[in-house]
Amino acid sequence: MNFHNILINWYLQNKRDLPWRNTTNSYQIWLSEIMLQQTRVAQGMPYFFSFTKNFPTVFDLANADEEQVLKLWQGLGYYSRARNLHKTAQYVANELNGVFPESFKELLKLKGVGEYTAAAIASFSYNEAVPVVDGNVFRVLSRYFGIESDITLPATKKEFTELAFELMPKDNPAIFNQAIMEFGALQCVPKSPDCTVCVFNESCVALQKRKVDVLPVKSKKVKVTNRFFNYLILEDAVGNTLIQKRASKGIWHNLYEFPLLETTAIVEFDFVSTAVKNEIFPSYTIISIEECNNATVIHKLSHQHLHIQFWKIKIKDVIENGVDAYNLKTFPFPIVIYNFIEKQEINC
């Protein structure tokens, strides 16, 4: 079909030289696909190199400590991906003798591997004729064919998967999948694509009907919850501080943080002072309390906006199991806390 020929020719002339494109190694392809979920290539690339250096095989990753995995993942976000990555590595190493499943259906059984990731691994590693359907593919196909189906609906996912399969050359599915994703990433971008230089500008329905800016159709809007975090940074008589692991499910599970006072709104000094002295640290002798940053830090997650204030609390006591400044940086933290530590704002 002319569509795939034009698309693949464009890809061969414009593709980026990405390390996971130079291999059929299923371990490396799996790593890259998990890392690139909801992550830009430029952001994910250093993490890919770091993981392949520290864990050159799936056995190395399986044998690693979870905290080491989370530390290397620090800053990439969506930390459940890292936890699932580690568990899947252990399963592949221990139950499958280090060999990844070689079919789309079997890959789907792995923890953290959905239809898109399974299709990517199956086609790139094993040349199985199964289409990848992600945001890029939705965008390219909806615009080119003028499809106005709501991409948040399961029926639409099926519609686009069937269309992509029909368009795909069955003897070379890997290059088609790479090409259509790359075309969406580089040319048919979400906002203000340069259609004047597009290889499909004479046949694209959305361009002809002036609907480029409205396709694909996506009806659901993410409901954002605002949360208010007050991190309490203790400094004891010998300069040590106190941290804790987030054991509860939800954001940042198994990462470390300072003691947390969560409130329903941004709070002032008097509120924090009273809570610290009477409820949170009543056994410590408080010398001083002060807010560390002039403005509240707003950290945006996919479904939550965190309004974060850091408070430094000096105490006369010595903290049992306190952590010094050097060792503090070795723990895996959410990036917003690590950046705070790194900028030495802990010293206020």
Describe the structure.
One of its GO terms (molecular function) is adenine/guanine mispair binding. Pfam families: HHH (PF00633), HhH-GPD (PF00730), NUDIX_4 (PF14815). It comes from Flavobacterium hercynium. Belongs to the Nth/MutY family. Its cofactor is [4Fe-4S] cluster. The protein has helices spanning 2-14, 26-35, 41-54, 58-63, 66-73, 80-95, 104-107, 115-126, 135-145, 154-167, 173-186, 205-208, 269-280, 325-328, 335-342, and strands spanning 225-235, 244-245, 256-257, 260-263, 286-291, 297-300, 304-315. The longest helix has 16 residues, at 80-95. The strands form two sheets. Strands 1, 4, 5, 6 and 7 form a five-stranded mixed sheet that branches. Strands 2-3 form a two-stranded antiparallel ribbon. α8 (115-126) packs across α11. The mean pLDDT is 94. It is elongated, with a radius of gyration of 24 Å. The protein contains 15 helices and seven strands. It is an alpha+beta fold. It has two domains: 2-214, Endonuclease III, domain 1; 225-347, Nucleoside Triphosphate Pyrophosphohydrolase, CATH 3.90.79.
